[in-house]
Amino acid sequence: MKRKAIALLSGGLDSTLAVKMMLDCGIEVVALNFTSPFCTCTGKNSGCKSEAVRVAEEYDIPIKVMHKGLDYLEIVRNPVHGHGKGVNPCIDCRIFLLKKAKEYMEEIGADFVFTGEVLGQRPMSQRRDTLRVIERESGLEGLLLRPLSARHFEPTIPEKEGWVDRSKLLDIEGRSRSIQMQLAEELDVKNYPCPAGGCLLTELSFVPKIKDVFDHAEELNLRDFRLLKTGRHFRIAPRSKAIMGRNEADNNLLEQFRQPGEAAVTWQDGNTPVVIITGVQDEKHYTLGARILLRYTKAEPGSHCRMELRLNDSRQEFTVCNDMGPAAVGKYLVA
Q1: pLDDT tens digit sequence for 265-284
Q2: Which CATH number goes with the domain that contains 50?
Q3: Domain co-membership, 188 together with 241
Q4: Strand order in the sheet with 314-321
Q5: Contact predicate 34/68, CB 8 Å
Q6: Residues 186, 37 share a domain
Q7: I need a labelling partner for 37 at 20 to 30 A (CA). Which of 148, 152, 154, 220 fits?
Q8: Are the C-beta atoms of residues 317 and 268 closer than 8 Å to each other?
Q9: Are residues 52 and 92 in the same domain?
Q10: Is residue 14 included in any domain, yes or no?
Q11: Are strands 4-8 and 112-114 parallel, antiparallel or unpaired?
């Protein structure tokens, strides 16, 4: 009887190798990919999701893409096992993903779950002790196989039952990926971008933006976190934020994400970023957003500038003074 397994497939090198190894062992593989607003390699036609889909298509295996939702944001805010150096809840994140994988495993009648994790590769979530915690708290004890490092651990049920030949599994350890790259050559695995993956929650420069949303949002929503990767963010009031594009691509994204009831402000007499106002807003917020915007234009200091306000289906003009220097603007800058 052919056994079926769920693969946590990011589209990076390690998870791709794990999929190839399990297929070579005669396992029927179903891939599961998770998307997050905090992934550093996301894009419309590139990034972890599209790479996972590409890998699944290349190996002719089904794939389910699952979005981390509001329940995941609560884990980021209050992780049981704490944060890393940033606001990264790596241990709780793995438990969350594997619980979802276990549910999917039971839903489709699969026999076990496997990942591309490597012992000692990541300092928080891939230590021997934390790997045991993750396996236990996810409810996958004995049913979680890590093919790249399996021989560092006690045999799992798939190995004990002979579903997977343990002699074909590996004992990779540590942060270097030289062995994986050599294995990729041997297994003819090619085109593996984002070999190490990446998460904005680990980046210290990103921490203030995350904490600002948690501190000021009345209700958490995924859009606010997706916007954190775009433009400059200014906290202009406890429940109001001005977000300004750094370039044309940012401007386009901000316009795309702008919701009904949110204003967009631009300078009428020159090339200009766009500022959108989110949260609570009224005339004083539009004025402050416009004054901050002018700091990043070529408008003459002290001059009165014509601004355009777009709100829902209306457009109106108003005038503000370009009177804010770097220090004044810096008081509102989140990151």
Answers
A1: 999 998 889 999 999 999 99
A2: 3.40.50.620
A3: no
A4: 232-237, 240-244, 275-279, 263-267, 304-311, 314-321
A5: yes
A6: yes
A7: 148
A8: yes
A9: yes
A10: yes
A11: parallel
Cα angle 211, 257, 193; round to 5: 75
Run of H or E residues at 91: helix 90-108
Q: Could you give the number of structural domains in the chain?
A: 2
Residues 179, 318 within the same domain: no
Backbone angles phi, psi at 97, to 5 degrees: -65, -45
Is the confidence at residue 41, as pLDDT, over 70? no
- Does residue 44 belong to any structural domain of this protein? yes
What is the Cα–Cα distance from 274 to 258, expressed in whole angstroms?
11
The domain in which residue 18 lies consists of 4-200
Please give the Cα distance from 277 to 275 (Å, whole number): 7
Q: What is the pLDDT of residues 146-194, one digit of tens each?
A: 999 999 999 999 999 999 999 999 999 998 889 999 999 999 888 775 5
Radius of gyration of the chain (CA): 24
Burial (CB count within 10 angstroms: exposed 0-12, middle 13-18, buried 19+), residue 69: exposed
Contacts with 196 (C-beta within 8 Å, 6 or more apart), sequence order: 12, 177
Q: 315 Cβ partners below 8 Å, 6+ apart?
A: 308, 309
Q: 6 with 63: CB under 8 angstroms?
A: no
Q: Is residue 223 part of a domain?
A: no
Shared domain for 192 and 254, answered yes or no, is no
